[in-house]
Amino acid sequence: MISPPAPVNLKQPTEVDGFWQRLQFALLPPHCLLCGARGESSRDLCAACAADLTPNRTSCARCALPLPTPAALCGECLRSEPAFDAAFAPYLYGHPLDLLLTKLKFGHSLAAGRVLAELWIAALANGARATLPNAIVPVPLHATRLRERGYNQALELAKPLAREFDVALAPDLLCRARATAAQSDLDAATRRRNLRGAFEVDASRLATTRPAHVVLLDDVMTTGATLRECARTLKRAGVARVDVWALARAPHRR
């Protein structure tokens, strides 16, 4: 079972703190994106709001589902193993993390994305990391959704993680070949049907890079239907091991 993230040291800079960010904070002190209070050192997040984040302390090692008591696997993974081999999600999805994710996903807030990436890097660096992969594959958006939103939030979160841990970033290895209905309005069974055949692997790119172990990365893991379908597609194409990294895991919805 993957250990929970240690408390975040908001005063310890990470690789995502580039020159321009340090210059910005030198000229204008950071402020908390959640409550507006002064941030801690070089972070747009105050200590009080950081303390409100809920770690995913007890979870299924296979799918990161939060569990009331420690167990190797949850009931669903015992009944039907997912295509991915392991999952890491350091936080539970809920307030106030959901506000930061909404700012990134729908508010075009790169500052929120930077804070989320820093939290993720801290959790991974604090001993809660599984074996590093050969490549990180962000869950892709369909071209139509990408044009509407302007960017893929999973890719934006993956960039600093790949840079921090010196792992190849492979955003074009997997593509969303078919537009699907929004997953947020569907139950678990309908989500699975909605995603069948939705993803494809770029065979030429896979033949060139040949990663034996990849991590699928997404911002939130809800039922896991999207990540299961992505992992199934990669496994069928010949990838030996597929793990999942999500910043937050939601309790199971049926």
Tell me roughly what share of residues is in helical segments: 25-40%
Backbone structural class = alpha/beta
What characterizes the major β-sheet?
6 strands, parallel
Terminal Cα span:
24 Å
Radius of gyration: 18 Å
The run of helices and strands is HHHEEHHEHHEEHEHEHE
Helix count?
10
Uncertain regions: pLDDT < 50 for 5+ in a row? Answer: 1-20, 23-27
Molecular shape: globular
Number of strands: 8
Structural domain tally: 1
- The chain-level mean pLDDT equals 83
Give an overview of the whole structure.
By secondary structure, this protein is α/β, with parallel strands linked by helices. The protein has one domain (56-249). The protein contains 10 helices and 8 strands. Strands 1, 2, 3, 4, 7 and 8 form a 6-stranded parallel sheet that branches. It has a two-stranded antiparallel sheet with strand order 5-6. The radius of gyration is 18 Å and the shape is globular. Mean pLDDT is 83; it is low at 1-20 and 23-27.
Lay out the secondary structure.
Elements: H1 19-27, H2 47-51, H3 75-79, E1 86-88, E2 91-92, H4 97-105, H5 110-125, E3 135-138, H6 143-149, H7 153-165, E4 168-169, E5 174-176, H8 188-195, E6 199-201, H9 203-209, E7 213-221, H10 225-236, E8 241-249
Parallel strand pairs: 1-8, 2-8, 3-4, 3-7, 7-8
Antiparallel strand pairs: 5-6
Helix pairs in contact: 4-5, 5-7
Brief digest:
The chain is an alpha/beta fold. It is 36% helix and 14% strand.
